[in-house]
C-alpha cells in the first residue's frame, strides 16, 4: 500500500473536495430533513413531521406536477428532434460541419440569457410571437399568465437549448456504426427508412438509454428558467409566476430553504425529490430496455 | 431533375432547424439595437436600429456589468485551472497505474457523476456560512471542483493517448510519478486538456443557482446573477435587457466559435463512452 502513496496523493484532491462538498452535504441534508431549523437558532428534532407535512402540502404536489409536465413537454420533443436531426446530418454529404456547429450553438449560451430572451419574445402584450400570431389573424395568447402556456414557454426554451446537444451525441453514435452493416442492408434491398428502424435505431439503443437517463436527471431539475422568467420579488413570496404555474420542485425548495429559512423542510423537499428522480430514471430505463426485441 | 433535387430534402429540414437555432441570436441584436417602443409596436420593427449604445448605457446604469463580469472571469479562471489540474492528475493515476482500490474508487466516481448535485446545496450553504464565506467569491469555487465527469473523460483520453512505452522509458530514465505526469503525459494530452478547460470555463461562466444562493452581497455578484436582475418590475425595458443579454453572450459565443470543433467532438465522445 505504502509504495502507492503518490497515486493516492494524485487522486486525493478530488475525493477530499467531493467528500466535503458533495457527499457530506447529501447525508447532512438527510439529517436536516428530520430537524426543525432556521439556520440560526437551536436545531430541534421533529422526527417524520416534515415528511408528514410534505405529503399533505398541496404546494409541494403542485410543484411536482409542474416539474413533470415541463419535463415531458421538453424531453420528448428534444430527444425526438435530436434523433431526426442526427439522422439527417448523418445522411448528407455537404455542410456536415456547419450543421453540427450551428445546431450545437444554443447549448453554450447561459440559461439566464436564454430565459430573458424567451421572456421578451413571449411577452403577453407585444412580444414577437403574439405579433406574428396577430399578423396571421390569431388573437394574442397569454403566454406568461396561462398555467399551461407558461409551461409550454419553459419547455420550448429547454428544447431549444438541448436538442443540438443530444443531436451531437446521437450523430457520434451513428458514425460509430460500421458502414458495412448499412452496405449489407442496402444490398439486401432495405431502403433508408427500413435501414434506420432496422439497424440504426437498435444499434443506438445504449446511447438512447444514456440520453434518456441524462435528460431525466437534468430535465427534472429545472429551476433557473422559471426563476429568471418571473423574477425574485421580495414582496411576493410565492415564486413561479401567476398561479405558481412555473413553480418547479427545485424552485419550491429554494423558496422554503433560502427565502423562508426553513432549512428542515427544504431538506425534506429535496430528499423527496431525489426519490422521485430515482423512480423516474428506473421507470425510463425499464421502458427503453423493454423496447428491445427478444 | 430527380437526381439533382433528391438530396435536397434533408438540407431543407436542416436549414430550417439551423434557422431556429440561430434566430434568437439575430433577434437579440435587433432588440438590443432598437428602443422598446419600436419593438413592442404593431407591427414590430424587424431590422437592427441605432440605439445600441443608449441601451448599453442603460444596462451599465442598472447593474455593475463590468464589475460582475470581472468577478465571473476571476472565478471561472481559478475554477478551470484547478479542475483541469485536479482531474488530469487523478485521471493519469487511474489510467496508467494499478493500485489497490483503483476499481472501487473509479466505480464510485461513476456513481458520483449521476448524483443530482442540487441535493447538497443547502448543507453547502451551511458550510459556507460556518467558515464565513457567504457573500464572497471564493465560495463559488469548492463546489465546482468536484467534477467527476472531468476525471472520467480525461482517463479515457489518457488510456489511449499516452503510450505506456514512453512512460516506461521515462521511468528507466529515473522519472518518478509526478515527473512522468508533468513531463510526459501533460504534453501528450493537450487536446484533452483544452477540451476540459473550455468545458469547465463555460460551466463556471454560465453557473446560476449556486451564485444566486451564496452571493448575498449585492455589490459583489457574478455576471449571470446581475443579468437576471435586469428583469424586474412590470414595465421591463426589453431593449435594455436584451442589450445586457447580448453583452453577456458575446464572450461565450466567441470562445465557442474559436474551439467549436474540438469542443463538440469532446462532448460527444464523453457521452458515447459513458
Q: Could you characterize the architecture of this molecule?
A:
The complex is a heterodimer of chains A (294) and B (274). In chain A, helix 1 crosses helix 12, helix 4 (96-104) packs antiparallel against helix 7 (147-175) and helix 5 (111-121) crosses helix 10. The radius of gyration of chain A is 23 Å and the shape is globular. A two-stranded antiparallel sheet of chain A has the order 1-2. Chain A is mainly alpha-helical. Chain A has a single domain (58-290), classed as MetI-like (MetI-like fold). Chain A is built from 12 helices and 2 strands; from the N terminus they run H-E-E-H-H-H-H-H-H-H-H-H-H-H. Chain A has helices at 5-32, 49-55, 58-91, 96-104, 111-121, 128-135, 147-175, 179-187, 192-219, 224-230, 249-259, 263-290; strands at 35-36, 44-45. Chain B folds into 2 domains: 27-63 and 234-274, no CATH class; 70-229, MetI-like fold, CATH 1.10.3720.10. Chain B starts with a helix and ends with a helix. The chains are: A mainly alpha (294), B mainly alpha (274). At the A-B interface, helix 1, helix 3, helix 4, helix 5 and helix 6 of A face helix 2, helix 5, helix 6, helix 7 and helix 8 of B. Chain A: It is found in: Cell membrane. Chain A: Belongs to the binding-protein-dependent transport system permease family. Chain A: It comes from Kutzneria buriramensis.
CATH architecture of chain A, please? Answer: Orthogonal Bundle
Helix content estimate of chain A: over 70%
Q: Would you list the SSEs of chain A in sequence order as H and E?
A: HEEHHHHHHHHHHH
Number of domains of chain A: 1
Q: SS-based structural class of chain A?
A: mainly alpha
Quick summary:
The complex is a heterodimer of chains A (294) and B (274). With 294 residues, chain A is mainly α. In chain A, 71% of the residues lie in helices and 1% in strands.
